Amino acid sequence: MSVTDLTAAERERILAKAAHFSPPDYVLSDGRRDLVGLSREELVAEMDAFGEKPFRAKQLWHWIYHQGVRDFSAMSSIAKPLQEKLAERFIVGRPEVATDQLSKDDTRKFLFRFRDHEAVETVYIPDRREDRGAVCISSQVGCTLSCKFCHTGTQRLARNLSAAEIVGQFMAARDAYGEWPSPRGETPRLLSTIVLMGMGEPLYNYENVAKAMKIIMDNEGIALSRRRITLSTSGVVPMMDRAGEELGVNLAVSLHAVTDELRDEIVPLNRKYPIKEVIEACRRYPGASNARRITFEYIMLRGVNDSEADARALVKLIAGLPAKVNLIPFNPWPGSAYQPSTPEQLKKFAAIVMNAGYASPIRTPRGRDILAACGQLKSAMEKDAAE
Ligand code: SAH
Ligand code: SF4
Description:
By secondary structure, the protein is of the alpha/beta class.
């Protein structure tokens, strides 16, 4: 049975239930605990319970997040007997690499599987011009929000990812590229930025996403600056304020429509947080400036939201905001209801936005051949079951 065979009521019920699924605990069936995903304070507490002083947590943090070491016996600043004791009680975990696919354009898609066998996709998108690139990370298995153009939103089951599972995607991608240890400062490297644009709505899993980002930004570990992290949301207004205050990462907002009537239909969350409230939250977002602009994502759907009048309404809507507009050509997936805009229409739309003073890059789809492009992510298990 495909998810589209369900009635709207059944779908609502399943998704409402699924929304409460929380991630598995970090204790393995053999009783060992995964140290990845603990905050610094939790790691100190864990060591305290284990009879070790706080400096032990500091050492472990360095080995785990700066050096990328998983094997306690390689942690040379720790005496051998203690290494052995640690290995009996703890692990430094990673998600399992279920599949690893390379696109013709060097985009690489991983399917990472977790302990309960749920899986998410993580995509590495190299920058064509430089030796760097973005890791597109998932925040949930599936998504409960059902935007009409999005493949992830058709996935039946959903649960939140734990902080360990979110950090683990980045760490496992680093393993695949051999990018340990972490550089000091902002040295360019292949995995240089993170975009929270994979599967799921990060602001519907705020606590775990925030914890994961704090681990990734910690100066003594991976040390990625908040300027190198972009969180994309479909507009969970109250959580946008919190993310701005507590994390200060770059913000991307999936706008996609300029009237509530259309946005209600294609981004159903709009019925809860309409356009006006989303834009107001953007105006309040701390640190937004010309140097750190808010990105508005706008998916170009042929004959739906891509007219020149739409473009003019868009620039009016965001007037005065330090912003750029990312025009995303719609990436079709099997069974999707829309067509991508024509290249001519895309250019006309982009020109209007640009003439109003906003950078309006047209995002080139990457990794289309391996279904790694925006909005095409969906776990392989679900694909097998549903199509
Ligand atoms: N839930 C968050 C982040 C994940 S979606 C959000 O919606 O912002 C990341 C981006 O992919 C969003 O801008 C989304 O609108 C876009 N997207 C979804 N489906 C797409 C498709 N079929 N083609 C192109 N982009 C798509
Ligand atoms: Fe969820 Fe984002 Fe897809 Fe909408 S576009 S269904 S919010 S992942």
